[in-house]
Design brief:
With 332 residues, the protein is an alpha/beta fold. It is built from 11 helices and 13 strands. 44% of the residues are buried. The structure holds the ligand NCc1[nH]cc(CCC(=O)O)c1CC(=O)O. Residues 97, 99-100, 185-186, 188-189, 214-215 line the site of the ligand NCc1[nH]cc(CCC(=O)O)c1CC(=O)O.
């Protein structure tokens, strides 16, 4: 006897039709790099069947260009206004450079995806193709990052740095105007903007360990967004390997209570043996560098990040943090 054929529509198809009915409004900053990131997210979502719309939102980090980030205050300068829109339901998701996202995000919001990471290195750009960075170089390098300044002071003691806040186009204009000889940036942004031909030096990531999250794009949403929709978005956007690495790095940053204007750094990577994370802190003058590497199974990513931070703090990292905060007149 023939078996009766029951053709049940798989639940997932049903669900997919439902969640893709709604247009996903994507909140983004308006800089060229931010738009590149948001468009990449939109393309991935469209490939998964979603309809998308970009909503451009200006942040304090875009508006205040005459102060370094350390002076504006490190918390959420590039993310706060986007988070307000998530909360008020004006957008379903917000897209950020993972590096710009605070280590602890507000309780009513969550990070649902980290996109596949680009090469993590910092690079130097110059309009002079013969520009060479040597250990004794006396060049002026444009950067406003406390981490990059401190690392330069350690490894290139004769270098001078000059401020270079603003979006990548603004910084390139400053380079063009010869406000400095070379401009230091994350390779990820340079690549995404198509400025690779100006690269004259690539810093090795073991000396110039990047900032937490460098090279990855983070996607944030309100916690109370429809759970099936969240699942669908995560499936379309999240890169599992990058996610694991960022969990470890972000746990490190959270435990260090660093924020983006403190010269901490962390970089995790995956291999057959599991997860490896290198991280630490450097004093502003580059004189004291604390850096450690830990290895372990991927399931312990967050614990490893925390343990690494506690190790660094107990080796004198807490002292470095205290003196940086005291110098800035913050409460210690
Ligand atoms: N804080 C600015 C910022 N946020 C993300 C990037 C670059 C792209 C990335 O790392 O994802 C940059 C510029 C830079 O550091 O050169």
């Amino acid at each position: 006897m023939e078996e009766e054929q029951v053709i049940a529509l798989p639940e997932s198809i049903d669900m997919a039709e439902n969640i893709t009915d709604k247009t996903i409004r994507i909140g983004t900053r308006g800089s060229k790099l931010a738009l590149w990131q948001a468009e990449t997210v939109a393309e991935k979502l469209q490939a998964a069947g979603f309809k998308t719309e970009l909503v451009i939102i200006s942040t304090k980090g875009d508006q205040v260009l005459d102060k370094s980030l350390a002076k504006i205050g490190s918390k959420g300068v590039f993310t706060e206004e986007l988070e307000v829109c998530l909360r008020e339901g004006q957008v379903e998701i917000a897209v950020h450079s993972a590096k710009d996202v605070q280590s602890t995000i507000p309780a009513d919001l969550e990070l649902i995806a980290f996109m596949e990471r680009e090469e993590v290195n910092d690079v130097l750009l110059s309009f002079d193709p013969n520009f060479k960075l040597e250990r004794e170089s006396k060049a002026i390098i444009g950067t406003s990052s406390t981490r990059r300044k401190a690392q330069l002071r350690k490894y290139y003691p004769n270098i001078t740095t000059a401020e270079s806040r603003g979006n990548l186009q603004t910084r390139l204009r400053k380079l063009e105007e010869k406000q400095f000889d070379a401009l230091m940036l994350a390779y990820a942004g340079v690549r995404r903007m198509g400025y690779e031909e100006l690269i004259v030096h690539t810093f090795p990531a073991d000396e110039f360990v990047p900032a937490t999250g460098q090279g990855s794009v983070a996607v944030e949403c309100a916690k109370n967004l429809d759970i099936e929709l969240k699942k669908g978005l995560k499936q379309a956007l999240n890169h599992t390997e990058t996610h694991v690495c960022l969990l470890a790095e972000r746990a490190f940053l959270r435990t260090m209570e660093g924020g983006c204007s403190i010269p901490t750094f962390a970089l995790a990577s995956l291999s057959d043996e599991g997860l490896s994370i290198t991280g630490g802190i450097i004093s502003l003058d580059g004189a004291i560098l604390l850096r450690e590497t830990m290895q372990g199974p991927t399931v312990t990513a967050e614990e490893m990040g925390e343990e690494l931070a506690n190790t660094i703090l107990s080796q004198g990292g807490d002292e470095i943090l205290r003196s940086i905060r005291a110098e800035r007149g913050e409460q210690v």
